[in-house]
Write a structure and sequence with these properties.
Blueprint: H1 5-32, H2 56-67, H3 72-88, H4 96-99, H5 102-112, H6 121-146, H7 162-178, H8 183-187, H9 189-202, H10 208-237, E1 244-252, E2 255-263
Antiparallel strand pairs: 1-2
Helix pairs in contact: 2-10, 5-7, 5-9, 6-7, 6-10, 7-9, 7-10, 9-10
Amino acid sequence: MSGYFIKLCFLPILLSVFEHISAQTVSDSISNFQSVRDSTVLSEKKNVVLNYKKYILPSALVGYGVASLTIPDLKQLNFSTRDEIKEHQPDHIRLDNYTQFAPAVLVYGLNAAGIKGKHNFKDRSIIYGTSMLITSAITVPLKHLVNEERPDQSNRLSFPSGHTAVAFASAHFMYKEYKDVNFLLSISGYSFAAFTGIYRMLNDKHWFGDVMAGAGFGIISTELAYWLYPKINKLISGKNNTSSTMVMPFYQSKTMGIGLVTSF
């Protein structure tokens, strides 16, 4: 066993994410290519169907995380992973507080640089804001309900990993925006998400199962946000088509939240 143990545990899961995403891209890109433009808006008349196949992989990640709370062998993997980390005494750095948002920041940066994604500023802001709200609505109550102690024993809010959930929600947001433009670019956000999850363990804040569940919840949140977007856009816009809305996450003084600004 070596310091590469954590990476070896995480890479098969990450590679399966990429494989799953690649399969989706082949079929999705044909029907979605024409919608890639600066001012793309989903048609209200389009019948948006919830595709259950997109939820299989993230549900499996969540299932593993839940199982790790009770199944002895998986609980033991949590402990052995932590012991392996402690053996090498890694430096505790707090970059994971920032890398969780990196893919979303890249989406806005790339659009500003002229590399346009699937949606315009308003539309993608609504989608990303919705994803962050769903992520928070899932992870925050679960932390209190599950009441799992963190590896560093600082509190009992370990399951699931909120940082990892936000990171994978952001990475999946980047994938959805750029999968029809540049596939390699679209999956680059997952490297930041993987880094965030790994460092939540290296910083002794989460168990391996917490991180797996967080990744699953994050991907599910973004998928739901894209599915809900036409309904939310109609609700926000109403009869006033000139209204504009910006939804952005913020992180300040160890507090994460969502900012919403609407002009009519």
